[in-house]
Design a protein that fits this description.
The complex is a heterodimer of chains A (100) and B (164). Chain A has 100 residues and is an all-alpha fold. Chain A has one domain: Orthogonal Bundle (Helix Hairpins), CATH 1.10.287.3510. Chain A has 3 helices and no strands. Chain A is elongated. Chain B folds into 2 domains: 93 residues, Up-down Bundle (Four Helix Bundle (Hemerythrin (Met), subunit A)), CATH 1.20.120; 42 residues. In chain B, helix 1 runs antiparallel to helix 2 and helix 2 packs antiparallel against helix 3. Classes of the chains: A mainly alpha (100), B mainly alpha (164).
Chain lengths: 100, 164
């Protein structure tokens, strides 16, 4: 039986790596991928708690997370493609119209 | 056996994300994430969620990341990915990551002395389906609306201006 704490530690490590990647990377696509890593870490924590409690509701939440992630990826990638088509760049610091 | 498999898959998933963090090649990063998410799917299976393990491998590693790969190849930067941010940004990100990790470790450390996990009863996939179509019926139906909206939105956004 795998201890729940180990799974939670794995989820925490993955989430932190995703967050650091989000801040370190400079192009929109890779930053978006980092967000997916954080979503997966969250899913892992939900499944760990679902097993700990012996209920399936956590697994239902993960099902919804995966569905929403699919929709989010479709829209986000369409927006990134649109930005690239207009600017010919996907560097995050080139998007600074709103900076004062 | 179970624990050894878990440790192997956990090492693989962390290594995949770490490689993604280090590499400068977008396509390599996405492929490393495929490895990482597939191992996470295996961990889902070990934790008594076989249906979600299959969905993770098929939808996440199979569909979503391949979509990312398509876009990476369409965007295909001639001059390559720009250099990393300034040095202090790297240091700040590392410090923030350490603080976040410490916080999470503190929160999860309280669970260490908790009761052992309850034995999972019955087939988890059948239970998941029942739950999805009884207690979570409305969220499930709303999800289909969300997917429809995403489909329409994606089509509208990606359309060229001169298209009919």
């Amino acid at each position: 039986m795998i201890p729940t704490v180990w799974v939670l530690v794995l989820a925490a490590v993955l989430f932190v790596l995703g967050a650091v990647a989000f801040f370190v990377k400079r192009d929109l696509l890779t930053m978006f991928l980092a967000v997916e890593v954080m979503l997966n870490a969250g899913s892992l924590a939900f499944i760990a708690f679902a097993r700990e409690r012996g209920v399936l509701d956590g697994q239902v939440v993960v099902f919804f997370i995966i569905t929403v992630a699919a929709a989010e990826a479709a829209i986000g990638l369409a927006i990134i493609l649109l930005v690239f088509r207009q600017r010919r760049t996907i560097k995050a610091e080139d998007m600074r119209e709103l900076r004062g | 056996m179970e624990v050894a498999l878990f440790l192997l898959l956990a090492a693989l998933s962390v290594a995949g994300v770490a490689g993604f963090l280090v590499t400068r090649n977008q396509a390599h990063g996405a492929l490393l994430l495929v490895l990482s998410f597939t191992s996470l799917g295996g961990i889902f299976g070990l934790l008594g969620a076989p249906f979600l393990a299959a969905v993770q491998v098929i939808v996440y590693a199979g569909a979503i990341l391949v979509l990312f790969l398509f876009v990476i190849m369409m965007v295909n930067l001639r001059e390559g990915v720009p250099a990393e941010r300034k040095k202090w940004t790297l240091v700040m990100a590392a410090a923030l990551g350490l603080v976040l990790l410490a916080e999470l470790a503190l929160a999860f450390g309280r669970l260490a002395g908790g009761a052992p996990p309850a034995a999972a009863g019955g087939s988890s996939t059948a239970g998941l389906g029942t739950l999805l179509f009884t207690r979570y019926l409305y969220p499930f139906e709303i999800t289909s609306l969300l997917i429809l909206a995403a489909l329409a939105g994606g089509l509208t956004l990606a359309r060229r201006k001169d298209a009919p």
